[in-house]
Design goal:
The chain is built from twelve helices and five strands. It is globular. Helix 4 packs antiparallel against helix 10. A three-stranded mixed beta sheet has the order 4-3-5. The chain has a two-stranded antiparallel sheet with strand order 1-2. The chain has about 325 residues and is mainly α. It is found in: Cell membrane. This is Olfactory receptor. It is a multi-pass membrane protein. It comes from Catagonus wagneri (Chacoan peccary).
Length: about 325
C-alpha cells in the first residue's frame, strides 16, 4: 500500500515505488538468483583483495594501498543499491520511503565520487612511478597516500550534500513510480510537483566532477604511454604496461558508463537504455573489478594464494 499524505488540495508522496522490477510470479526469481550470486561475489572478491593487501607486507606500496581502498569502497557502493534490488525482486512491496530514497542517493553518489577521486589518485601514483621513478619513494609517501584518500572521501561526501538537501525540500505529489532500478537524481526529480530547473546546476556539478577526474586520468595515461614507448627494453615496456592495464580497464569501465549516464544534459534515453546503463556501473563494473585486479595481477594472485594457505595452516593447527 502506497503511503500518501494530504495537504490542502495536493496529496504529498511519502514513499516511492520502483516500477522496473518484475513481480515474483512474473520472473522476479530468475533475476534474483543471478543478482544474489553476483552480489556475493562482489563482496567476497573485494573483501579478499582488501584483506590480502592488509596482511601481505609485499603489497604495502602506494599502488596496492589505493587498490585496497577502492575494494573497501566497492563493498559499500554496491551495498547501497543491490540489497534493495534483491528485496524488490522477491517482495510484493517494491517501495522505498522518501527518507530512504534520499539516503540511498546520498551514499550511492558520495561513494561513487569518492571512487572516482581514488581512481584519479591512482593515476597520479602511476604517473609519478613511471615518469619520475627516482623521485617516486620521496613523493608518494604513506602520509601522502592517506591524505589523498582522506581528501577523496571529503570531496565525495561533501559535494553531494547540497544537492540532497535541496531535493529534500521539494514537494512530491501525483505519481510516485520511479522508472529506474535505484533512486537517482533525474528519475526522482521528474516526480517533483514544482519547478526543478535548478537541475541544470546539478548537471553542471556532475559534469565538472566527471570531466575533472577524466582529464587528470587521461592526461596522466597519455604521458605514461609515451614514456613507456620510449623505454629501450621490451621487458621493461611489458612490465610497465602490465602494472597500468588493470587500472586503465577499471577507469574505462567506470568512467565510460558514468559519463554516458550523467553527461547527457538535455538528451534523453529510453527506459530500457537508462536501465542498461545503470546496470553497467551499479552491477557490472563492481563485478568485474575483483576479476581485473586479481586475475591480471601476478602479485595479487600470489597474495590471495598465500592468504588461503595461511587459513588452511591455521585451521590445521586448531584441529
Amino acid at each position: 500500500m502506497t503511503r500518501l499524505m494530504t495537504s490542502g488540495n495536493q496529496t504529498a508522496v511519502t514513499e516511492f515505488i520502483f516500477s522496473m522490477f518484475p513481480h515474483l510470479h512474473d520472473g522476479g526469481l530468475l533475476f534474483f538468483i543471478p543478482l544474489l550470486l553476483i552480489y556475493g561475489f562482489i563482496i567476497t572478491g573485494n573483501l579478499m583483495i582488501f584483506v590480502a593487501i592488509q596482511l601481505d607486507m609485499a603489497l604495502h606500496t602506494p599502488m596496492y594501498f589505493f587498490i585496497s581502498v577502492l575494494s573497501f569502497l566497492e563493498i559499500w557502493y554496491t551495498t547501497t543499491t543491490i540489497p534493495k534490488m534483491l528485496s524488490c525482486l522477491v517482495s510484493e512491496q517494491k517501495a522505498i520511503s522518501l527518507a530512504g530514497c534520499l539516503m540511498q542517493m546520498y551514499f550511492f553518489h558520495s561513494l561513487g565520487i569518492t571512487e572516482g577521486c581514488v581512481l584519479t589518485a591512482m593515476a597520479i601514483d602511476r604517473y609519478i612511478a613511471i615518469c619520475s621513478p627516482l623521485r617516486y619513494p620521496t613523493i608518494m609517501t604513506p602520509k601522502l597516500c592517506v591524505q589523498l584518500t582522506a581528501g577523496s572521501c571529503l570531496c565525495g561526501f561533501l559535494l553531494v550534500l547540497p544537492e540532497i538537501a535541496w531535493i529534500a525540500t521539494l514537494p512530491f505529489c501525483g505519481s510516485n513510480k520511479i522508472q529506474q532500478i535505484f533512486c537517482d537524481f533525474t528519475p526522482v526529480l521528474s516526480l517533483a510537483c514544482t519547478d526543478t530547473s535548478l537541475v541544470v546546476i546539478v548537471d553542471a556539478v556532475h559534469a565538472a566532477e566527471i570531466l575533472g577526474s577524466f582529464l587528470v586520468i587521461a592526461l596522466s595515461y597519455i604521458r605514461i604511454i609515451l614514456v613507456i614507448l620510449e623505454m629501450p627494453s621490451a621487458e621493461g615496456r611489458h612490465k610497465a604496461f602490465s602494472t597500468c592495464a588493470a587500472h586503465l580497464a577499471v577507469f574505462l569501465l567506470f568512467f565510460g558508463s558514468v559519463a554516458v549516464m550523467y553527461l547527457r544534459f538535455s538528451a534523453t534515453y529510453s527506459v530500457f537504455w537508462d536501465t542498461a546503463i545503470a546496470v553497467t556501473f551499479v552491477i557490472l563494473a563492481p563485478f568485474l573489478n575483483p576479476i581485473i585486479y586479481s586475475l591480471r595481477n601476478k602479485d595479487m594472485k600470489d597474495a590471495i594464494g598465500r592468504l588461503f594457505c595461511y587459513q588452511k595452516r591455521a585451521g590445521g593447527i586448531r584441529r
